[in-house]
Write a structure and sequence with these properties.
The complex is a heterodimer of chains A (about 120) and B (about 110). Chain A is mainly β. Helix content of chain A is about 0%, strand content about 55%. The N and C termini of chain A lie far apart (about 40 Å). The mean pLDDT of chain A is about 90. Chain B is mostly beta strands. Helix content of chain B is about 0%, strand content about 55%. In chain B, the strands form two sheets. In chain B, strands 2, 4, 5, 6, 9, 10 and 11 form a seven-stranded mixed beta sheet that branches. The radius of gyration of chain B is 13 Å and the shape is globular. The chains are: A mainly beta (about 120), B mainly beta (about 110). The interface of A and B includes residues 102 and 108 of A.
């Protein structure tokens, strides 16, 4: 059964510093991996989706890498801003679309960017 | 225009009541989902519908019954609400099982 872990659970950085968020998964048989952002009391916003055949995806200041062999994905946020403060979640989609096997979420990393 | 919408946003009710949460997506997606986010913020899938057919049914009490009248709607009906049902329920949709999922704003259910 897939398990997704995000460490640390919380992270605080000064504005301008680069953010590095880690995600690890136990089953490397994934179809894709998705990164989300969740603001307090709000829904989830999809940030990046990396297909299993890809090594990384980029969108503006965000860059996500995927290493299936080691079961890791990393989200980099360059030159952090206070508006980046949120909880970031990663989720893995398995290759086997069996009943009960869809997005498995990590516990999230709560990020605070201090002005 | 909101891509995935849910109503109501907040729902406060007494134990034992029956309630429904509605979800609509205007993205033309074939697949819709219900997720539950508990007090520890863990998100877990509950149900998935593809072209109005149930394809994923996680281990949830049968007090929870999803209904999909058409591809754009997936409603969640909950009977005999219990305290432990208090959580935030998210609806999501994707073009198919393998593509990016888009989430609604969530419905915060509080059972007293």
């Amino acid at each position: 059964k897939q398990e997704v872990t995000q460490i640390p659970a919380a992270l605080s950085v000064p504005e301008g510093e680069n953010l590095v968020l880690n995600c690890s998964f136990t089953d490397s048989a994934i179809y894709n991996l998705q990164w989300f952002r969740q603001d307090p009391g709000k829904g989830l916003t999809s940030l990046l989706l990396i297909q299993s055949s890809q090594r990384e995806q980029t969108s503006g200041r965000l860059n996500a890498s995927l290493d299936k062999s080691s079961g890791r994905s990393t989200l980099y946020i360059a030159a952090s801003q206070p508006g980046d403060s949120a909880t970031y979640l990663c989720a893995a989609t398995p290759t086997i679309k069996a009943a009960g096997n869809k997005l498995t979420f990590g516990g999230g990393t709560r990020v605070l960017v201090k002005p | 225009d909101t891509a995935v919408s849910q109503t109501p946003k907040y729902l406060v009710t007494q134990m034992g009541n029956d309630k429904s949460i509605k979800c609509e997506q205007n993205l033309g997606h074939d697949t819709m989902y219900w997720y539950k986010q508990d007090s520890k913020k863990f998100l877990k899938i509950m149900f998935s519908y593809n072209n109005k057919e149930l394809i994923i049914n996680e281990t949830v009490p049968n007090r929870f019954s999803p209904k999909s009248p058409d591809k754009a709607h997936l409603n969640l009906h909950i009977n005999s609400l219990e305290l432990g049902d208090s959580a935030v329920y998210f609806c999501a949709s994707s073009q198919n099982l393998a593509t990016e999922e888009y989430f609604g704003p969530g419905t915060r259910l509080t059972v007293l």
